[in-house]
Amino acid sequence: MTGTWLRHRTATDHADGAAPVVGVASTAVAGFAFWLVAARLYPAAMVGVIVVALSTMQLLTGIAQLNLNKALHRCAAGEHGHRRIGRAYLVSAVLVAAGAVAVVVAASFWAPELLGYAGRVPLLEFFIPATIIWSFFALQDSVVAAAARGGSLPVGNVVLALLKIMLLAIAVVWALQDGSTFTWALAVAAVVACAVGYLFLRALPDREAAPVQQSGLDHAGRLLWSAAVHGLPLLVLLVIGPVHAAVYGIVWTIGFALHLVSSTIGHALTPQAVAAPEGAPTARRDMERRALTLLLPAVVLIEVTAPLVLRIFGPEYAELGSTALRIAAWAAIPGIVTTSAISMARARKRGAVLFVVPASVATITIGLSLILVPRWGLIGIATAWLVGQSLVATVVLVLRATWLPPQLDAPLSAVRHARLLARLRYAAGGQVLSGGDWGTSRVLSGGSQGLVVAVGHPDGTDSVLKVAATPLSREALTRECTTLLALHANPRIGSWRRLVPELVSDGDAGGISYARHTRIPGRPATDVTADATVQDRLAADAVATISELHRRTAYTTEATDEHLARWISRRAAVVRQHVPRADHGRLDQIEQLLIEELRDRRVALGWTHGDYTAPNVIVADNGEICGVVDWEQGDPAGPTMLDPVAFRLIAAVQSGREELGAVVVRWSADGGPYAGELADLQRRLGADPLHPRALVLFGWLHVVALSIEKSARFAANPVWMRRNVRMVLRDAVLDPVDRAHHR
Fold first, then answer.
1. For 630, left (φ over 0), alpha (ψ -120 to 50), or beta?
2. Do strands 462-468 and 635-639 pair parallel, antiparallel, or not at all (unpaired)?
């Protein structure tokens, strides 16, 4: 309540990782000390009025700043930096002064208790200079961050934080007791003059200013959050009186210090996510783990010692606030999730998230407080904070979950897809579909990382738009674009290229990658409903189709250790990360069996699809195969044996309505019903056929490792892992094979 929250929120991210920690710790300790002195020197009712006065002042300052602090952080330095700072200070002073007058004039309606304790003239004498000075301090934080010089910034932040609290304490006490604000104003003005003079004359580096990138939604979310933080003390004063407002101020000072821990660590997450987007999910998990490690013991300690801590301030604080403090402390745990969501959204420039998360917490908290405070007092407001943080954190966890039951996944996926398309259309609608019609687009497939959309065109043709929103999916989309161009440029492929979509355009817009290619008329092989005979013929045609690509591009070579590491060991390592340690021995046995079977064997390498399954095979109305799509796993020098064996395995799963693990366990005994066909395909390309059991296990390892790499949903689904991975590790036949017999 002494400005800790505003001071922290207006401090911007910078390179000195220790500075935010030192600043938050110093302001938290100083705030605790201030309220301890105030509680000992003044009656609880007077402390309650001080709480409300400070909160109202900080809320007013936050509203009137118009996000100037963010602008100053990015443009304070440079040739015209001093002029920008001066204009920002002037605009802020005029706005907050006008707001202060309006607040005091209207105090008869919104806070008559405040007028009763202070009087209108002393209140006006306090609010006008206090809000102006506080707005300068808040803006000054951003300027100091922009002008930071190594290790000097933490020291400056600490000194400024202590000065703010001490001088503001003097202002409140003098203004509300006898109206003697003149001496306080001189003291604060002197400090501000020294700080501003230092910034203008010494600290601002002569470098070019960075472009201003403000988010109106981010600012709106901050304002609603500020309304909850700084507006609820007024609710307590109006509903249950100044004594309870004083207790709430102490409870909130202690409880919100816990929230600042995750917020401070979250500040470090944002630049990490910007610098290395592919590692952002891991950085987020590390941030949440560190915050939980720090907060959980602190919360438990507060649960045990809450009455003792509050008794330091006075017996009425312990009596009225112990339970509320315990509840408010627990609200910091779900606050870790909401804070990490905001930090990630700021790194990814997701304005909607920056608004929705804090606004939802604030709205739920304020709404519940209006209902619960008249009934439960301070326990009601603490419960409102806990419920608000918990509900929003639950939604965040559900939305970012790698696996959900189909009943939840389908509607959430529809929302994600619509949002992703809206973002892309807003960022570069004409650039993406200069000849297309967004109105006739329809989603063909999609997941948590991207989606595939069929787009209609005025001439009656369709194209396929692929959208990728995560680093992993963007990388896959880049690979597919490269593969499509290479396939159409390869003269050895010849007429087979008619089966391959042709890339029309690709690019990036608004943090989203996209690629548009021609759409091959037809339907996926999985959508062809026919009897078993037709299905068998279609599967045979699909194997023959991909084998023709192999025939045109293949060459033979001996499998080297580099090949074995890429084809086997790397994929086994992917699977090993997601199975229990008890299964590692069987996985090692499969890895060793495949390495021994393939080492120094003559194998056929050539253009492979890498994910050759029925959904990626397009069938015309006459039943003929007319296209092969989704080439993100394409490889110009892949082992040709994998495409047909993977297709046969997945086709058996789809036709027999059983899981992959059950098929692999059966086929591991004798190679399955297509062992002869697969051996002949290898011989035709001049390769030494693998043992049927080894080939089946090789195909299985490729399929499951690829599935896990493509989407975290597979590894996160315990049913899928048990039926498709652990079943094979547990039950597959792993007897040694006779290499010589199969050469």
1. left
2. unpaired
As a whole number of angstroms, the distance between CA 459 and CA 85 comes to 56
CB 632 within 8 A of CB 513: no
Determine the Cα–Cα distance for residues 128 and 562; give it in Å rounded to an integer.
73
pLDDT along the chain (743 residues), means of 10: 37 42 61 78 82 80 66 53 68 76 71 64 70 70 51 47 53 48 46 54 45 61 87 89 90 85 74 65 82 90 92 91 93 92 81 88 94 93 95 88 66 70 64 53 65 69 80 87 94 94 84 85 82 85 96 94 94 93 93 92 95 93 91 94 95 85 92 92 94 94 92 82 93 70 47
Tell which residue, 189, 324, 188, has the closest CA to residue 254. 324
Rounded Cα gap, residues 596 and 85, in angstroms: 70
Query: What separation in angstroms does the CA of 113 have from each of 50, 53, 107, 378, 633?
Result: 12, 11, 9, 19, 70
Beta strands in 326-461 (DSSP E): 437-446, 450-456
Query: What angle (nearest 5°) sits at the alpha carbon of residue 305, between those of residues 302 and 306?
Result: 70
| Helix ranges, 42-67 (H) | 44-64
Q: Is residue 147 helix, strand or coil? A: coil
In DSSP terms, 724 is beta-bridged to none
- Closest Cα to residue 365, out of 462, 237, 235, 481? 235
Q: Which helix (H) or strand (E) holds 627?
A: strand 625-628
Question: Which are the contacts of 513, defined by CB distance < 8 A and separation ≥ 6?
Answer: 467, 468, 469, 473, 474, 477, 478, 506, 507
Range 566-569, long-range pairs (CB < 8 A, 24+ positions)? 567/598, 567/639, 567/698, 567/702, 568/594, 568/595, 568/598, 568/698, 568/701, 569/595
179 Cβ contact list (under 8 Å, min separation 6): 119, 121, 122, 125
Task: At 134, list the tokens.
Answer: 């506080």
Give the Cα-Cα-Cα angle 408, 409, 415 (nearest 5 degrees). 100
Q: How far apart are CA 602 and CA 690, in angstroms?
A: 10
Beta-bridged to residue 556, according to DSSP, are 604
Structure tokens, 419: 């949002």
CB-CB contact of 382 with 324 (8 Å)? yes
Q: What pTM, to 2 d.p., does this model score? A: 0.65
Say how many residues make up the chain: 743
